[in-house]
């Protein structure tokens, strides 16, 4: 984490720098530094739990401005719109873990997802096990370590939710799982409501309510995020954005750009440039 602090302190160039660490199915870990730029309003279909390492992080969340100081943590819920910027001209740096809501729910024994009303958790109020998840993000995660990360995040969410949860108390998890598997296996197909009803055995209204309670987002948005997963992988592999748009099932590059920015707060080109900037910093060390 000290390296991230130094990147922010020594940076003379405005922009985003991002570096992905080792992850696992449903888990991503990221280190980022921003100087003189900001994330546009966007939303994820995952939980995002991060710690500010340097500078002052500001973001608007649920209609209110928030501030996250070094050592403080922030919790962003699935499908909640937020932005992100530095509170001072010096920029800020952070590390964050993105976790599939299905993993959270499974690790807590089922039921609705926990909801943390205050997105900023003060320094010293987070279990050291969560901090350990972001200490060495470059190390790959095996199955046991992935479970440990999941439990650390889920237990933190539950501890700070105060027992609050939203949504139906009883979920038909096997039925919802079949819909989720269909979307993961074939995200390029625009499935009809009848397809989901046939696969799940639930009516479309029950399915819509229960899917969000179980996975933190709607089936339609879940499908969009899986297409964006494919787009990110292709961008990181060096493909041209026009090719990426077609391969990921978007109408054209403009469509990809709009959806990408809504999800990540950056255009695909800016996202790729941020990764490249972090690689250059690493190469100079």
Automatic annotation (TrEMBL):
<dbReference type="InterPro" id="IPR037923">
    <property type="entry name" value="HTH-like"/>
</dbReference>
<dbReference type="GO" id="GO:0043565">
    <property type="term" value="F:sequence-specific DNA binding"/>
</dbReference>
<dbReference type="InterPro" id="IPR050204">
    <property type="entry name" value="AraC_XylS_family_regulators"/>
</dbReference>
<dbReference type="InterPro" id="IPR018060">
    <property type="entry name" value="HTH_AraC"/>
</dbReference>
<keyword id="KW-0805">Transcription regulation</keyword>
<dbReference type="InterPro" id="IPR009057">
    <property type="entry name" value="Homeodomain-like_sf"/>
</dbReference>
<dbReference type="GO" id="GO:0003700">
    <property type="term" value="F:DNA-binding transcription factor activity"/>
</dbReference>
<dbReference type="InterPro" id="IPR003313">
    <property type="entry name" value="AraC-bd"/>
</dbReference>
<dbReference type="InterPro" id="IPR018062">
    <property type="entry name" value="HTH_AraC-typ_CS"/>
</dbReference>
<keyword id="KW-0804">Transcription</keyword>
<keyword id="KW-0010">Activator</keyword>
<dbReference type="Pfam" id="PF12833">
    <property type="entry name" value="HTH_18"/>
</dbReference>
<dbReference type="Pfam" id="PF02311">
    <property type="entry name" value="AraC_binding"/>
</dbReference>
<protein>
    <submittedName>
        <fullName>AraC-like DNA-binding protein</fullName>
    </submittedName>
</protein>
<keyword id="KW-0238">DNA-binding</keyword>
<feature type="domain" description="HTH araC/xylS-type">
    <location>
        <begin position="177"/>
        <end position="274"/>
    </location>
</feature>
């Amino acid at each position: 984490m000290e390296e991230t602090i130094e990147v922010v302190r020594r940076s003379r160039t405005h922009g985003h720098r991002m570096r992905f660490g080792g992850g696992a199915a449903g888990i991503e870990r990221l280190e980022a530094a921003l100087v003189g730029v900001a994330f546009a309003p966007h939303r994820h279909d995952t939980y995002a739990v991060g710690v500010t390492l340097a500078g002052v992080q500001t973001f608007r969340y649920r209609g209110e401005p928030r501030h996250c100081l070094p050592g403080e943590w922030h919790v962003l819920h699935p499908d909640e719109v937020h932005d992100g910027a530095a509170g001072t001209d010096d920029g800020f740096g952070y590390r964050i873990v993105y976790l599939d809501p299905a993993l959270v729910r499974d690790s807590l024994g089922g039921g609705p997802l926990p909801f943390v009303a205050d997105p900023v958790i003060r320094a010293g109020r987070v279990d050291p096990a969560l901090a350990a998840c972001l200490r060495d993000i470059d190390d790959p995660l095996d199955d046991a370590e992935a479970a440990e990360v999941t439990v650390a995040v889920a237990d933190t969410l539950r501890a700070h939710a105060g027992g609050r949860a939203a949504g139906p108390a009883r979920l038909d998890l096997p039925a919802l799982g079949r819909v989720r598997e269909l979307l993961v296996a074939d995200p390029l197909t625009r499935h009809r409501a009848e397809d989901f009803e046939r696969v799940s055995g639930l009516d479309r209204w029950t399915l819509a309510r229960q899917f969000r309670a179980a996975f933190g987002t709607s089936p339609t948005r879940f499908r969009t995020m899986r297409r964006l997963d494919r787009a990110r992988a292709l961008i990181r592999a060096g493909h041209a954005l026009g090719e990426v748009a077609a391969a990921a099932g978007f109408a054209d590059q403009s469509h990809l750009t709009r959806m990408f920015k809504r999800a990540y707060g950056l255009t695909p080109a800016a996202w790729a440039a941020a990764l490249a900037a972090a690689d250059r910093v690493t190469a100079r060390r």
